[in-house]
Design brief:
With 341 residues, this protein is of the alpha+beta class. It is built from eight helices and 14 strands. The chain binds dinuclear copper ion.
Length: 341
């Protein structure tokens, strides 16, 4: 009976490991590889300690247990210098073996590489509950998807627009906090493997903390250049002039498309080619499991933003006077706003 809650807890722990794409055990870049190395060292040391302690305990329990008819008090031993030195030295040694590489790597991975030659500079800003990515070298600001070329180091500067968040891409690097005191944290990452890597906010930051997902997309260098070029094309607005005006006065006071609009909300340039809406509604772009057409996701998001991501700061479009039909049209326009890269 006592085992039951233990088993339940254990299965709960294991069930958390179900997401392959959020695993640190499958590193895709040098930083994540180094971090997995640290995990391996600490788990090996822990396993070693557990095994040694259990073996000694089992040996002592069996060997020195009270035998039938044995009623006298055993010899009382007090103090043993040799043993005490040994069991102080061994843990000390283990702590050193653990501490030296950990401290080395913690400082190495938090190094400011912003001004190193050849790096891609990206400013990361955490918002409740989305991520902003700025590329000062290209004069680009985007959201939710950090596009990077493979085989090029990315130097990140991390800060927050509101509360404490933490930037974490399990298969590449992290976690690094974004601090509300205005300070900037640094980290870097790189990968040689093209692909999409899932990122998560790893610090409880409010109602939709659990939904604060983003993507890091690693592409070939030429594809990255094509993206930069496509991103900088003039803004595309809804074709219908009345709708365009409504979109401009309402949506563009916070969001931006191309060179127009504001920076309070996520930049919408090329949103039709992003893999998610709001970080969590999976777009049917790569035919991912459980994904929906971009337009359907946009209609869902625009119709009930608070249902999809509770506590987010986007005003309800219906309360701004958008009819169901107009929401449909805006969704259609955004779904088709794609970047060719
Ligand atoms: Cu942002 Cu949790």
């Amino acid at each position: 009976k006592r085992l039951l809650p233990l088993l339940a807890m254990f299965s709960l722990l294991l069930s958390g490991c179900g997401r392959e794409d959020l695993s640190v055990l499958n590193p895709q870049g040098p930083v994540a590889e180094g971090q997995l190395g640290l995990i391996t060292i600490s788990i090996s040391i822990m396993a070693l300690v557990v095994v040694v302690v259990f073996v000694i305990a089992a040996y002592v329990l069996i060997k020195f247990r009270r035998k039938p008819g044995q009623n006298e008090v055993p010899v009382q031993v007090e103090g043993n210098h040799k043993l005490e030195i040994i069991w102080t030295a061994i843990p000390l040694l283990l702590v050193i073996v653990l501490a030296v590489p950990t401290i080395q790597k913690v400082f190495a991975y938090g190094e400011d590489k912003w001004n190193e030659e050849g790096v891609l500079q990206v400013e990361v800003t955490g918002h409740q509950f989305w991520w902003e990515f700025s590329y000062p070298q290209y004069d680009i600001t985007t959201a939710q998807e950090l596009l990077m070329p493979v085989d090029r180091e990315v130097a990140l500067r991390l800060r927050t627009a509101d509360v404490l968040h933490s930037f974490w891409v399990p298969s590449l690097a992290g976690k690094t906090d974004t601090n509300p005191d205005g300070s900037i944290n640094h980290m870097s990452l790189s990968t040689g493997n093209p692909g999409t890597y899932i990122g998560k906010c790893a610090e409880l930051c409010g109602q939709s903390h659990g939904y604060m997902e983003f993507r890091v997309k690693a592409v070939e260098a030429e594809q990255f250049d094509a993206w930069v070029e496509a991103f900088k094309a003039p803004a595309v607005l809804p074709e219908d002039s009345q709708l365009a005006e409504k979109f401009r006065t309402n949506c563009l006071s916070c969001h931006a498309v191309g060179d127009q609009g504001g920076f309070l909300g996520p930049n919408l340039t090329g949103i039709g080619s992003r893999e998610t809406i709001a970080g969590i509604l999976l777009n049917d772009i790569n035919g991912a499991k459980g994904s929906s057409p971009v337009k359907d996701n946009l209609v869902q998001w625009l119709s009930e933003p608070q249902e999809v991501k509770p506590g987010n700061t986007m005003p309800d479009p219906k309360e701004l006077g958008f009819s169901d039909e107009e929401i449909e049209q805006i969704a259609d326009y955004l779904a088709n706003y794609k970047l060719d890269y």
